[in-house]
Design brief:
This protein has 366 residues and is mainly α. The chain is built from twelve helices and six strands. β4 and β5 form a beta hairpin. α1 packs antiparallel against α12 and α10 runs antiparallel to α11.
Length: 366
């Protein structure tokens, strides 16, 4: 792993602050799962089963355990991961978010075998839900509403989760990713959600609205993982198609006028921003940069890394509170739900981005 360079001292400070905040959060929520925290008091809104965000809390605990090496931290992370088991058979494509990010740091060789087993069970359940006609794992009915949706937050996590199953799993992962990328080309900016219509058609959904801050970051994250985890199963044409999609999605982000921290809703510059979207984007860009570097795309890798570093620096110097909380994340602007709060996935992706940038972890460990 590369050593931390002098100009990334700010990243070391932020990393330490995030780990301290993780300690505080663990003490506050106990056996519950943090969701979002008040920007002033820091008090968490928590859930008993984790909802779609439970894997991010488990992932943060695994990051803490890997950083400290302390047996008690490892035990806490493993116990949190075990509490996600309820979700393996729930009808939701967010099982990708839950079980990839909740187990990826735990399930490698010599680590937590129970987490690996949980991840495989979740992957097989998601594969069973795959619709070969529509070429995707449907959004599902676990959180209410229509089941046969294609939503961009069903892409990250689910692609590597499925890809871990050879053969049919790899084909499902590629189909799922390709379906979402194809739909993303239909409108600009990409529409976050589509409902299945007659004769294999798709109807745009009103919510989340086009211009939702996390649309492109979620797509980029799933795309980066697809390029990595599906490499052996892709022919040159399919791989070229994924790289072309990456170029199309990253081009607007690399433009000089592109904000480092986007508005929660494009077209509403006076509304809240969304630091969690920026943190997700930074991780996705670092992954794409690593892939570009490995495939002799040196100039592209430099541009992607520079953009990711700029985003992380802005988050750490402009939005990280004294207590180590990434503030100014927006859960749901349309409903004014936690519009400028600390979000558990924002903390997680900021921590992952810093870990990758400073060489503490490999881009595709999580």
């Amino acid at each position: 792993m590369p050593e931390t360079t002098h100009h990334e001292a700010w990243a070391d400070r932020a990393w330490g602050a995030l780990l301290e905040r993780t300690e505080q959060t663990a003490a506050e929520v106990g056996p519950r799962f943090p969701l979002y925290a008040d920007p002033e008091s820091g008090a968490w809104k928590s859930t008993s089963r984790g909802s779609w965000t439970g894997g991010f809390w488990a992932g943060l605990l695994w990051l803490r355990a890997l950083a400290s090496g302390a047996p008690q931290d490892r035990a806490a992370a493993a116990e949190c991961t075990r509490r996600l088991a309820h979700w393996t058979d729930q009808d939701t494509a967010t099982r990708g978010l839950i079980f990839w990010y909740g187990t990826a740091l735990a399930a490698g060789p010599g680590r937590d075998g129970e987490a690996a087993g949980l991840r495989e069970k979740a992957a097989r359940s998601c594969l069973a839900a795959y619709d070969p006609e529509r070429e995707l794992v449907p959004w599902g009915a676990a959180f209410g509403g229509p089941r046969m949706l294609a939503r961009v937050d069903a892409v990250p996590g689910l692609v590597p989760l499925l890809a871990g199953l050879a053969g049919e799993g790899q084909r499902a992962a590629h189909g799922h990713l390709t379906r979402h990328l194809t739909l993303s080309r239909t409108e600009h900016p990409p529409r976050p959600a589509w409902r299945a219509g007659p004769e294999n058609g798709w109807t745009p959904c009103a919510e989340p609205a086009p211009g939702w801050s996390r649309t492109t970051p979620w797509l980029l994250l799933g795309l980066a993982d697809g390029l990595h985890f599906l490499t052996d199963g892709l022919d040159s044409r399919a791989a070229r198609g994924l790289w072309e999609a990456a170029g199309r999605l990253t081009a607007p982000r690399l433009a000089p006028a592109s904000p480092l921290v986007p508005p929660a809703q494009e077209g509403q510059p006076s509304g809240p921003v969304d630091t969690s979207a920026a943190a997700i984007e930074a991780v996705a860009l670092l992954k794409l940069a690593a892939l570009a570097r490995a495939t002799d795309r040196g100039t592209e890798a430099e541009r992607l890394t520079a953009r990711a570093r700029q985003i992380l620096h802005r988050l750490c110097t402009g939005h990280l509170s004294a207590r180590g909380a990434l503030t100014d994340g927006c859960y749901d602007a349309a409903r004014a739900l936690a519009p400028c709060h600390e979000l558990i996935w924002g903390d997680f992706f900021l921590a992952v981005g810093l870990a990758v940038l400073t060489g503490r972890t490999d881009p595709f460990t999580t």
